[in-house]
Amino acid sequence: MNRTNPSIIRTGGDADLAFAVVVLASYFATFSSLQEAAPLKIVILIGLGTAYLAIGIYGYAFCARSKSVLLSLLYFAVQIIVGGLIVFLGKGAGFNALVLMPLAGHAVVLLPRRTGYISHIVIMLAYVAAVYAYSGSVEVVWQGLPIFTAGVVFIVVFTQMALNEEASRREVERLLSELTEANQRLREYALQAEDLATAKERNRLAREIHDGLGHYLTTIHMQIQAASAVSANDQKRAKTILTKAQSLTQEALADVRHSVAALRSPVEGHKPLAEMIRGLLEGARNAGIEPELIISGEERNLNPQTRWTLYRAAQEGISNACIHAKASRLWITLDYSQTDCVILDVEDNGIGPGDYKEGFGLLGLKERVSSVGGMVEIGPSKKGGFAFDIKVPA
User: Fold this and answer.
1) Which stretches within the chain are classed as H helix?
2) CATH code for 270-394?
3) Of 4, 99, 240, 302, whose CB neighbour count within 10 A is largest?
4) What dihedral do alpha carbons 357, 361, 367, 371 form, nearest 10°?
5) Tally of CB atoms within 10 A around 73
6) Domain range annotation of the chain
7) Cα distance between residue 170 and residue 163, in whole Å
8) For residue range 181-193, what is the model confidence (pLDDT) as tens digits?
9) Predicted confidence band at 386 (pLDDT cuts at 50, 70, 90)?
């Protein structure tokens, strides 16, 4: 059963003033039209009017705050009785039945819809009973009933329109408040997204520095160490090693330029992935590791981002074998045999992962692979060393 929310319309101020004006206007019309009246009747009418006015203001406000249907029904029972007595004692002078009409508006606000309709009928029955009681004539009842009914209908319709307008205003205010909150949340989300984008770009730059420049610096460092070790006894070999180190610095500079270009725009290039990886193997050889590149299936073109991700992964595997694994052999396998993915497997015969700690290189590797929708598995190699398998969508 639908119930109008009593708090949706104001119960004080203008509403109380309107109620008081109607009651006082009814009494003014009554006393202006009375031919003769005993002082006692006038006192009783004033007392009933005062009670009716007080209950109509304070009782109505209390019922509206309590939202209790039972209290509202009690309120209407008392007011209908008091209003009926006022109509009866005034004997219809000045159409004092006007005093009952505000109750129709109160019923719209306080009562559920069906109960409110019943209360409107009871109000009209109270009018009929009061008029018939003092006149004893059905004709007198019928003379005033259409006007009274029209007044009740007008008040009901007007009150319902006021409720609807107030409900619409409240809804607009609620939506405006929600919109304001949503805009505030959007601003907060925008700031968070900006921070996230900044952090993501910072991580991307860190990965590029670690995977690219870090790889070459590691290899160059090992070359210089090797040259220092043999310089006293074999200057010719030391010079050869330093020449290779110098060559690696040129490659490092080229890699930095490539990384900068990749950061400015999508990674482009025409080299196949296998050829790109072969270019890394010389660095492993210079570090004393024998690398082997194995290609399974028919090599095919990959999108630039996937190709670059796998290239950096192979680079990380070579750096790991040179720095941590103390390996003498390294195997890099590119598997194109599956139609929906490409697999890169890197393994060495070094000391194995043990309880390895995930450094920035492996963390960056996982982030790279995740960014292209791939997966990484890290663990011991079948050759006894360290291995990781990467599977990315083709």
Assistant:
1) 14-33, 39-54, 60-66, 69-90, 102-110, 113-135, 138-208, 215-230, 235-264, 273-286, 304-320, 360-371
2) 3.30.565.10
3) 99
4) -150
5) 16
6) 6-136, 270-394
7) 10
8) 988 888 888 778 7
9) confident
